[in-house]
Amino acid sequence: MIEKLTDTHLFGILLSVACFYGFSYIRFRSRQSCVNPLLLSIVAIIIVLSLTAIPFDNYMKGGSVIHAFLGPVTVVLALPLYRQRRLLITHKYAILGGILAGVISALTSVIVLCRLFGLNELLERSLLPHSVTTPIGIGLSDLLGATEGITILSIIITGITGAALAPFLYRLMKIVHPVARGIGLGTAAHALGTTKAIEMGETEGAMSSLAIGVAALTTVGVVILLQYMSWY
Amino acid sequence: MKIFKQLLVILGLSFGGELLSNLFNLPIPGSITGMILLLILLLMGVIKERHIAETSDFLLGNMGFFFIPAGVGILVSYQSLKGNYIEAISVIILSTLLVLAVTSLVTQLLIKSEKKHDRKVD
């Protein structure tokens, strides 16, 4: 019965809109920036599908319609990067050097740690783009033949971790320069890190926002280079 | 009408990116090719901010919504985690802290050395 009723494109779209709206509303009402509508929607939908007899494929009928918009969402990431381009004029080499160092340490640390913990290769590839902004992370996940779902969850965990721990880490390491603080957060923890950077100050926020786009493109470049050289 | 005009530009670029990646067998996913294409066209002044602004800001501001289905996809792929939940989360947290430390430290050191260099030039 329920299997038949939900066998329509509208079901998946409706469920996604309902969850996302519901959790966005809770976030708005509670004024807690740690309420993550995306993560909570994913968990809620997984619970709904597990508890009822609704097949995964029925949800994905509508889900694939939403999923089709990932392309356009990725394309428009060029706009914030374009708007922030002037920030690169001052401290150009420091910013690009810092981001490149961060991107390389992100990729190598995932490879080294995964092998240290004995995780399988599919998992290693799925975790590789964890510091990148989600749409680019999904693109890289596909490129690496990894699992989109695991990549997305790793990106969300990264954002929450980075935003929560950056203030302590910066104090511990005496990172005081606002440009360095912003670039660090944007490179390591994408959009979620940027919300924390905006709390720290205007320069931090702008730099973090710039770093999201630059770090994403740098990661794409390094991954393609690694594949081209057959190193990965 | 404005929204449709902007949507036309964005969807066109997105499709163009897919086309370029497929036609030329580029190693970059089509969506990222589309992003780079848009960035180049903006920098060249071929596309102006007003041609895409409102629709782009809507998509950017509500980006999370579009990742829900891909995230729910973990339902069919969680087997590859093979119960290694704690290990996987540890990798993510440790790697994130390292990236945060390396990026901010290198940026700060380079800014300081820029200043020293400037003083010498003066």
UniProtKB/TrEMBL annotation, chain A:
Keywords: Membrane, Transmembrane, Transmembrane helix. Pfam families: LrgB (PF04172). It is a multi-pass membrane protein. It comes from the Bacteria. The chain crosses the membrane at residues 6-26, 38-56, 62-82, 94-118, 150-170, 210-229. One of its GO terms (cellular component) is membrane. This is LrgB family protein. It comes from Gaoshiqia sediminis.
From TrEMBL, chain B:
Its main location: membrane. The keyword Lipid biosynthesis does not apply. This is CidA/LrgA family protein. The chain crosses the membrane at residues 26-47, 59-79, 85-111. Keywords: Cell membrane, Membrane, Transmembrane, Transmembrane helix. Pfam families: LrgA. One of its GO terms (cellular component) is plasma membrane. It comes from the Bacteria. It comes from Gaoshiqia sediminis. It is a multi-pass membrane protein. It is found in: Cell membrane. The lineage of its organism: Bacteria, Pseudomonadati, Bacteroidota, Bacteroidia, Marinilabiliales.
